UniProtKB/TrEMBL annotation:
<keyword id="KW-0325">Glycoprotein</keyword>
<dbReference type="Pfam" id="PF00190">
    <property type="entry name" value="Cupin_1"/>
</dbReference>
<feature type="binding site">
    <location>
        <position position="181"/>
    </location>
    <ligand>
        <name>oxalate</name>
    </ligand>
</feature>
<keyword id="KW-0732">Signal</keyword>
<keyword id="KW-0472">Membrane</keyword>
<dbReference type="GO" id="GO:0048046">
    <property type="term" value="C:apoplast"/>
</dbReference>
<dbReference type="GO" id="GO:0030145">
    <property type="term" value="F:manganese ion binding"/>
</dbReference>
<feature type="binding site">
    <location>
        <position position="222"/>
    </location>
    <ligand>
        <name>Mn(2+)</name>
    </ligand>
</feature>
<feature type="binding site">
    <location>
        <position position="176"/>
    </location>
    <ligand>
        <name>oxalate</name>
    </ligand>
</feature>
<comment type="function">
    <text>May play a role in plant defense. Probably has no oxalate oxidase activity even if the active site is conserved.</text>
</comment>
<dbReference type="InterPro" id="IPR019780">
    <property type="entry name" value="Germin_Mn-BS"/>
</dbReference>
<feature type="transmembrane region" description="Helical">
    <location>
        <begin position="83"/>
        <end position="103"/>
    </location>
</feature>
<protein>
    <recommendedName>
        <fullName>Germin-like protein</fullName>
    </recommendedName>
</protein>
<comment type="similarity">
    <text>Belongs to the germin family.</text>
</comment>
<dbReference type="InterPro" id="IPR011051">
    <property type="entry name" value="RmlC_Cupin_sf"/>
</dbReference>
<keyword id="KW-0964">Secreted</keyword>
<keyword id="KW-0052">Apoplast</keyword>
């Protein structure tokens, strides 16, 4: 009898998922969250049904151990219904972790299917167009990562176009927590650099002319600065579909809510007034 139930569970599970293998060489995001497009993501109704049926089978197999509910006082709520109590208590058993594992597998699987569909229709264009750099820093970054081009999902790569205003257009010091970056200058003259980690904090920098390439290793703080009197443009490839950006000044002085000014005053050896001033600018 038990063997039959296992067979049925496996059979129904087989209907609910197709074989999909994919991986990314780096974590995909800051936090592990569901993909942000609820339409078409998650499970189809067939998958939910088969999933639910397989869960019931598992629960039946495990019924003797589904007794964890005694520790909860459920007597005065709808939760006291025997079926709900049964489900509830199942969660405290070993099969609840199996349940969650299945849920993850199925959600993941349908995310892959969704991305496959989007991959077919990805359509990003306009990277050849010069961007407006009239802003505080005199630079504009145009990213093409998984947010702009869902087809990059699970592929572990992305790219950016960066435009710099003449005479000091700056891509301010920042870091990509999940990607190394390789940059090529197409026009203009850029002073670029990155700083190694503690304790050396060594600045490695260079002046780049058109056609020259520089690499910023993952996680290290880096910048590009237009030292020419002409407009500059560079392209860069990044080793993650979702590299992330932490702009140092914004993270430190522009956090929301603000970091206590006393902390920053001490950390940066500044007086409190100066910190408040900086905080008002980011
Ligand atoms: C791709 O974008 C171009 C211009 O933005 C548009 O003309 C074209 O119809 C789009 N193609 C698809 C398949 O969305
Ligand atoms: C560039 O952006 C600035 C500020 O947003 C705006 O005033 C200006 O008209 C823009 N220039 C062009 C050519 O679009």
């Amino acid at each position: 009898m038990e063997a039959l139930q296992i067979f049925v569970a496996i059979f129904i599970l087989a209907l609910a998922s197709s074989l999909t293998f994919a991986s990314d060489p780096s974590p995909l995001q800051d936090f592990c969250v569901a993909i942000n497009d609820p339409k078409g993501s998650g499970m189809s109704s067939l998958q939910i049904l088969s999933f639910f049926l397989s869960y019931l089978c598992l629960c039946l197999m495990n019924i003797q151990t589904c007794t964890g509910y005694e520790s909860y006082d459920l007597s005065h709520s709808y939760l006291s219904h025997p079926f709900i109590r049964h489900l509830y208590s199942s969660f405290s058993n070993i099969n609840s972790s199996f349940f969650l594992l299945l849920l993850c597998l199925l959600t993941e699987n349908s995310a892959k299917m969704q991305s496959l569909a989007k991959q077919m229709t990805s359509n990003f264009s306009g990277l050849h167009i010069r961007k407006n750099t009239s802003n505080t820093f005199g630079s504009t970054v145009t990213p093409v990562n998984v947010a702009q081009m869902p087809g990059l999902h699970t592929l572990g790569i992305s790219m950016v176009r960066i435009d710099y205003a003449p005479n000091g257009g700056l891509n301010p010091p920042h870091t990509h927590p999940r990607a190394s970056e390789v940059l090529v200058v197409l026009e203009g003259t850029l002073h670029v650099g990155f700083v190694t980690s503690n304790p050396d904090n060594r600045l490695i920098s260079k002046v780049l002319y058109p056609g020259e390439v520089f690499v910023f290793p993952v996680g290290l703080i880096h910048f590009q600065y237009n030292i020419g009197n002409t407009y500059a443009v560079a392209f860069a490839g990044l080793s993650s579909e979702n590299p992330g950006v932490i702009t140092i000044a914004n993270a430190v002085f522009g956090s929301n809510p603000s970091i206590n000014a006393d902390i920053l005053a001490k950390a940066f050896n500044l007086d409190r007034k100066m910190v408040k001033n900086l905080q008002s600018k980011f």
